[in-house]
Each structure stands twice: as structure tokens, then as C-alpha cells.
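Forwarding the complex inputs:
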Amino acid sequence: MRKIILLVVILSFAFMLNAQLEQRGFVRTHVGALIEDGGYSVLQNTFDWRLDYGKGDVELYVNPVFNYDGLNENLELNLRQAYFDIYFDNFDLRVGKQQIIWGKADGVFITDVISPRDISEFILPDFDEIRIGINAVKLDYYLGNSTLEAVWIPIFQPTIIPDANSIWFPEMPDIFTQSIVEDAKEPEKKLSESELAIKYSYLGSAIDFELMAAYMWDDNPTMHIYPQQESLIIKPEYHRLPLVGASFGKSIFGAVLRGEGAYYFDKKFMVEDFSVNGVKEKDYAHYLVGYDHNLFGVNVSFQFIQEYILGYENDFKNDEFSNTATFLASKTFLRETLQFDIFGYYGVNNNDALLRPKISYDFIDGFNVLLGANIFIGDEGNFGQYNENEMLYMKLKYDF
Amino acid sequence: MKKLTLMLLVLLVMGTVLFAQEITGLQVIENVYSRPTGNDQTADLTMTLENSRGDQRVRIIKQFVKDFGEMEKKIMFFVSPADVHNTAFMNWSYSADGKNDDQWIYLPALKRVKRISSDTKSDYFMGSDFTYDDLGDRQPNADSHTILREEELDGEMCFVVESIPNEEEQMYSKTISWVVKDKWIGKKKEFYDEDEDLLKILTVKEVENIKDYLVITISEMHNVQKDHTTKMELKNVKVNTGISDNKFTERMMKRGM
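Prediction (whole assembly, two chains):
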């Protein structure tokens, strides 16, 4: 109800400004069924409404999303974004709920840590739907081809994780089944607990690059374990996560070479040592190299990603090095009305994978039908743990 | 006096020889390439794609182009269809030999500007019958040019020039261009595929004189093998309005028109 009131207030305010209104968005039906037993995994109808009001150098953007979940018979209104843009000669100011996306990686989050994620359906939704709009003040200062961006996030917003009864709820260590898990302790809502991030970016003929530093909270809670006489108490807690990072993109003989890396200070990791409540902190590095090319009309892209825990000790639950590879191939036919795509993740450590083939066709401009599959390979790891969730799905979408 | 008469005779003979010297195919194409088009241009581009059954799809783009001397920058904002609205594409092309274009795309869903592979010259632009290469200015020395003949086309005398790529593995085995004499503007162009069969015909339908610059405002590309066409129409063309250098930046790609 509060969201509806907020929406009405924002829209009324814009109409009062007698501003120019632009309405866009889409209507979509999304149906998915598990291959194993034919049970529906997704039954969603979505109305994504994008309202843009502009008057001079001030714009208001509101993006309410109405989502009807047929499995739970639940209608939900979500305000994905709602912000003001104020444009000046050399800088822009954006205030409100917004998605902020950094870095050069595709489908991997390294320096892209500003907007938290909604992974209630793992990483399967479109990426603009995975990222949660966050209340923030963003300032961009421009000097030629350079941009200096500063972001202040007054209130922490964690990752949205799947419900415990969801098919996307991740595998938990055995000790969790014998434990009492308390509610996560979130940072207090006060100025000293806010988040700050800055980024310098350059776009030019020779190279594009970004340098960033951020004083964030880890969007995922750390599980602190307190042994009791006959059981364990697990207290999830959020911790500060400072990091620095960089990324680049460069053309080489018509192809594009990309790289991105971040160094996280004192990240908390789960260990088997209960004397430290199952948690130790170590510095951590996360980086990738990527390559995009067009071969015989097929867009192909490869990425190799590595995560490295510095000062690693043998009682860590995570591996010292975690390696992942991604690939993408995409080709259009019939004057770009028919498109084939396949995107895949391969987890090297656990020999598991996620393959996402899809085919889409534009019947008329704006009306698109998409058929796809999510194929999980392996028995464990980020992707193999979901090997019973293989699915086929269809999306009908009308953009207006 | 004798010396003066002799000098005049020599000059007259030289002038006659120079005048009589035939223009080469390369010179014709270089004249087309270097024809002044202004320092900058703004236009609304409408592409109408029509298939053999007569079904039409329309793409609308707002484009800005500016000449920076050794470099030309172009930025395109996609207006319709709805699913590509607010997508922006930026291209920086260079006059230096062998230097590839730099290209970026801004997709509103991804909310970031992404450098893309420029090795897509032979890809068709937005599903039209124009490749990216067709839309750009191909450097004259990329091909060997021969004047086949001179003939009249729609009431104007034209050089008919055959151009064969110097490098192998090009999309077209050759092109034949009809270039209007003295105006140095193309009027028609035939594109031949790898088997040297006629693939496409480009016909210039309308040329406008805007601030003393000749601008092709309506053209049509007909794929004769698949029998579909793309009509390309430029509206609201403005030349030399002094577009700011800042128009061709990441900021504008994100902000839009």
C-alpha cells in the first residue's frame, strides 16, 4: 500500500510540473517448466512501466513493475527505479532509487558491487531485473572523455536470496541442519553506516578504463557459529567490505580485449575452526580477462574468471583459487528478426556448468517470442547443485 | 618578342596536353571521397525495410556526425522500434590507413557503454540491406578503380567506374559506380557477390543542396537476389550547426538525445 501511495505521489508531482511525459515499457508472459517432472517453475505476467518526465534540465524517471506470480497467485508492485536527474554544464546529479552498474564484465560481478542483486531465481532473470534499485545520490563530473563519479548510499540494502522452500535455495553445509539460525543482523540506519564509492572512467580511441574504490558492506551475510552444549547457534551478520578495482576495454585488430579486477580487504570467509566462530578474514582478489570478436557473422565472447583468497589456510570452506569460464555465441538471421544465442558458465573447480541456449523471433516490431532452456551440468558447485532444476521456458513480450 | 611567342606556344601545348589527359578511375573515386560535406551534420534517419511480400518495418534514428580532421565521429540514437528505444551507437573512424574504427554501444538494459568489435563491416545494419561498410566512406586506395565508360543516367553524364578490392576475402568481388561528372556524387552503385553475381543495387533518389553542400537525402538499396529493399531517408538535415565536441561522449550515449 505504501508503494502505491508513493507511486501516486510521484506521478501527481510530475503532472503538476506540467512536464512532458514519455511512456514506455513492456508486457510479458513467462512460463517455465522443469524438464525432470514437468512441474511449472515459472508462471509470471509482468507489466514493466517506464515513465520519463522532463522539463528543462530536470527529469523524473519512475519504473513501477507489476508482477503477477501464477504459482503463488500473488500480485506484486515493485518500484524498480524512481529518481530525479538534474543536469548542469559539467556535471549531473541523480537522486533516488537507481540501478548503478560498473565494470566491463558480462554476467560476472567484480567491481559491479554498487547495486545489490536479487538472486531469488538464481542468476536466470535478465540482468536489469537481477540488480536491485538502491537509494543513492550519484554525482558525475565530466571533463572531455573522462568522468568522475561519486556515489553515496545512505542505507544498506542486502542481496535478496531465495526463500528456504525455493528450488533456488542453495545447498547449505550439514551443520546448518543441526543448528539454530538467527535472523541476520543488518547495519544500523545511520550516517556512519552508509556506503561510499568513487570511480574515474575514461573512454578514448586507444583504450577505455575505469578505476574505482568503495567502502561498502558485503551484500551477503557472514555466518558466525556459536557452539552450544548440544547444538550450534548461527548468527548471520553483515560486515564492512572495502575494495579497490579497475577495468579496461581495448580494440585489437577489430576484436575487443577486456579485463577487470578487484581487491577486497578483510573479506570474511567460513572456516571449520569453531574457536573463531567459524569465520576468518582474508584479503581476496577477483579478476577476469575477456575477448569479444565477430567471426563470420557470429558474435563470440569468452571470459576467464579467477577468485583468489590471499593467506589461504587449509580449514577454509572455499578453495584457494576458484576458476570459472564463460562463453557466448550469438547470430541473427532473417534481417535480425530471428536470433540464436547460447551463453554458458563453466565452473572449473567442480567441473559443473550452466548452458543457456535460446532462440527468439520478432513477429512484428516490438512483439517477440523467445524459447529457451537452462541446462545444469555436474553434481556440485555453483551450477551443478541445481542439476534437478533444468528447465524449458517461453517468453512472449510486447514492447511499447 | 620571339621568346615571348615561343613561351606562349609552349604553355598552350602544355595546357592542351593536360586538358586532354584523361581522368583515372582512382581520381573519380577520390573526388567523390573528398567532396565537401560540411564540418558537421544532424539528421533524422528513417529506414523502411520491405520484403518480397511487401511487408514493411520502420527504424527511426537521430544521428549526429562531426569531422575532426583525422577522425570522424558519429553518434546514433535509436528512436524506434520500441525494443531498441534509447539504444545509442557511437563510431569513430580514422583517415589513417589500416586503422580500425572504434565502436561503442549503450544498451539501456545493461546501463553501461560497451566497446564492441568493429570487425563487423560486412554485417547488415539493423537488419537493413546496408552493411556497416556501405554506410561508411570506404577509402579510395582500398580498391583498384577503372573507368568502364561514360554514359547518361537520368539526364546527367556519369563516369561508370569499376572498383575491385585490393585485399581478398572481401564481401563484394567488385562494385560498379555511376558518378555524376563535375558534381562528384554517386548516383547508382551495383554490388557483386563473391561469385561475381549481382547482389544489390543502390539508387540515389534525391539529392538536396543544403548550405551549398550536396546531401543524399533519399536512397534505396535493392537486394536483387532476395528481392527485398531498404529505403533510407534523411529528414531535418542540418549542416554546420557547430555541434559540440561533447556530443560524442559516454555521457551523451547514456543521457540520450
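The two ends of chain B are 70 Å apart (CA to CA).
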